[in-house]
Write a structure and sequence with these properties.
Layout (H helix, E strand, L loop, with lengths): L15 H60 L5 H14 L2 E4 L12 E6 L3 E7 L1 E4 L2 E4 L1 E6 L1
Parallel strand pairs: 2-6
Antiparallel strand pairs: 1-4, 3-6, 4-5
Length: 147
């Protein structure tokens, strides 16, 4: 009886370099896909953070008219407005909203101040405080300027 010749399983196939090349291509593709996914997750988180910040800025911008009314009422000594205004300021502070409060004699900073009268570079009078959140100017401070 004749026995069939069996292939030696320990003997590597003749096209091992082709298989290694294919393996390396799959590995590189997987690594690129993994890096792309990581970058996508980071970009998405950043975009959501930016969107959240912009939504907060717009909400606060809408509420500032209420704050302005409280400030105006306080100037006219309308009783009972001081605690409401104080509560409003506490909420703004808790939300990370900072006041922009220039001082008379300070230099005009066009990124934070809006000149509503006069000409020059020095602040003469502060008409209305401004507000900012992180790097976003919600409302610039309104000032008059002089030389």
């Amino acid at each position: 009886m004749k026995t069939k010749e069996t292939k030696n399983p320990a003997k590597p196939p003749e096209d091992i370099s082709k298989i290694k090349k294919e393996r390396d291509e799959y590995l590189a593709g997987w690594q690129r896909a993994k890096a792309d996914l990581i970058n996508f997750k980071k970009e998405t988180a950043e975009s959501l953070g930016t969107f959240s910040d912009l939504a907060k800025v717009e909400s606060i911008r809408e509420l500032l008219s209420v704050y302005d009314a409280l400030c105006e009422g306080e100037k006219h000594s309308i009783e009972g407005l001081r605690p409401i205004k104080s509560l409003f300021e506490q909420i703004l502070q808790r939300e990370g909203i900072e006041r922009i409060e220039p001082h008379v004699g300070d230099a005009l900073d066009p990124t934070r101040h809006e000149s509503v009268g006069g000409a020059g570079e020095k602040i003469e009078e502060v008409r209305q405080c401004g507000f900012m959140y992180k790097t976003y100017i919600i409302r610039p401070a309104k000032v008059t300027v002089k030389e």
